[in-house]
Amino acid sequence: MRTYSYMHIGEEIDRDAHVICKYRVTTDLPIEKAAEAIAAEQSTGTWTGISTLDEDVFTRYGGKVIGIKGDIVTIAFPEEDFCIENGGIPQILSIIAGNLFGLEALHGVRLEDVEFPSSIMRKYKGPNFGADGLRKILDRPDKPLVGTIVKPKIGLSPKDTASYVYEAGSGGLTNSKDDETLVDQRFCPIEDRTKAIAESLDKLKEEGHRMVHAINVSTNGERIVQLAEDAQSWGAKQIMVDVITCGFAAVQALAEDPKIKVPIHVHRTMHGAFTKDPLHGIAMLPITKLVRMCGGDALHIGTLGAGKMAGSVKGDHDSLEACLNRSFGHKNMMPVCSGGVYPGVIAGMVRASGFNVQIQAGGGVAGHPGGVRKGAMGMCQAVDAAFKGIDAEEYAKDHPELKAALDKWGIK
Ligand code: CAP
Ligand code: MG
Q1: Which residue from 126, 167, 355, 374 could staple onto 370, CB 3.0 to 4.6 Å apart?
Q2: Ligand 1 touching residue 154 (CB < 6 A)
């Protein structure tokens, strides 16, 4: 029985006929052996030579280790290993991010990046609106979008949620959203909430202010598209989905449903389970690329070191870049900076991110001493100051809502 070598370092490979993955590997094995173990496990091999593997199958479908640099291993998987139909993200993940994480011989392995050939990219339609489309809806061409997450996360009635949204919009916010744990609980049924919020948004519109609120439709696979359609019929101007708990296929199903005509806000709750460890798991970069392929219009990317959530500044930057770069082949996606944001962190955060972002604060709005409307004003003033290049403390001299926020939380 023959055993085959998965090592192809130094050989020419057709990059447009392979899915190319970069893994960070920690192991006591020689790294070549570890790399081969991954390529084998994720393509044509297993832990031992097998009688059923012949030259032809191995050559056509075997993963190829094409680079090793320090602890980074690059593996190219032939495009033929992947499903022919559109909708193959679950199967793509079972190859590029599958059994390899459990291999005993590896102390740690982290999928850092993935590049898809155009034959696979073409199967995915990408965002329907993207960052540019969202800006058009909100008539806000240049400044960062400024949003809130209704707080408390859970417990408010539809009426109280709608009045929070109205107050936030009156204070100038362009966006608001349900929190990730709110979908359709008894205290806040989704139909009543969506209708009540739609009234708030209509009232704001009559008063000359455009705002969207993302209704969280994260639910079972067989219900999610119908729930999103229903939410839209009840007046939702944006829908939200938790990509990790619902799956990439859910984002794609929503984006490709011809009846859904509103943008999709993508939350990433649970991502910390595999993004937080720098040596094991999956980085946000591949997650971002997959969400963009599947059609998310906005995605949480972290706060570039400014907020409450753990995350590497480089990781957040990579994700930001992958949302916005114009060479991706699909519309761009609005990067959402959220998690412990308050007015005093905005200048620094925007310096790191640029202006093409959606800045979001839950506690940083609802925790303002003057209430939600003033909290929203404080956030908007901080964004205006950053946009104009004026120091926040200086700007606060003529803007009492910002001043109150800086007095409470300080500047980071
Ligand atoms: C922010 C948030 C978001 C986090 C998720 C929260 O609220 O609603 O879920 O931004 O962060 O509940 O924490 P606050 P990440 O503004 O009150 O912090 O995308 O980094 O996982
Ligand atoms: Mg939240």
Answers
A1: 374
A2: no
